[in-house]
Amino acid sequence: MNKPKQVDSKEVGLAVGLIFGKYFLKTEHMHYGYWPADLALDISNVAQAQEKYTEFLISHIPELTETVLDVGCGTGATAKKLKDTGYSVECVSPSDFLTRYAHDLLGDECTIYQCTFENLNTDKKYDLLLFSESFQYVGLDEVLINSSKYLNENGHLMICDFFRRGGEIKSFMGGGHNIDEFYDRVSSSGFRIVEDIDITDQTAPNMDLVDDLLGNFA
Fold first, then answer.
1. Where is 183: in which H helix or E strand?
2. How far apart are CA 197 and CA 158, in angstroms?
3. Which of helix, strand or coil describes residue 212?
């Protein structure tokens, strides 16, 4: 008798999340949303909030940026939006399931490196490295060293993610890196912070929706 193939619980969780989002919320994004004051906090508005999040990211991409590496691209929905906006985009995706989905969405014009950022191996350099809710999963030292390696001269590192202040946990998924430690690493790495925006008030409402889903639907 053949030994049953072991199921990766993380891949199953990603599949369930994607199916729920695509068929119940009508969205292919897997990131949280951006909730401005005029958008009602309702499950029916999640797709719209996620689009606003992507628009927020794109609106803060530095001028003269042409090439982007989307690290932890998820379903590829953000990368597709970047491509449609005119950027040349490549992706890093460690998930077998999401890599297949992103390939179907992006086609053959977009290279997807199926690996972690720490294991990325390419001679290419980019104007922008984008970490959208993926930065918390990479070690601080590794990410800053590798970012310097893959950036063009005067390139930028763009991070939108959860951070912790002291023992405070912002994310129900674990909270991300300590913000003070992050600033210390940045100051000693050769990077210079050119823009620092706190969007906690616009993203925190997602926690209420998650609690509601877990309590009343899941």
1. helix 179-187
2. 11
3. helix
Could you give the CA distance from residue 138 to residue 131 in angstroms, rounded to a whole number? 10
Between helix 179-187 and helix 140-150 the angle, nearest 10°, is 40
Of 148, 171, 149, 146, nearest to 160 by C-alpha is 171
Q: What is the pLDDT along the chain (218 residues), one digit of tens a residue?
A: 555 555 454 544 545 555 555 545 555 656 778 889 999 988 788 888 889 999 999 999 999 999 999 999 988 999 999 999 999 999 999 988 888 888 998 988 899 999 999 999 999 999 999 999 899 889 888 888 889 899 999 999 999 998 988 655 444 445 689 999 999 999 888 899 999 999 989 988 877 776 666 556 55
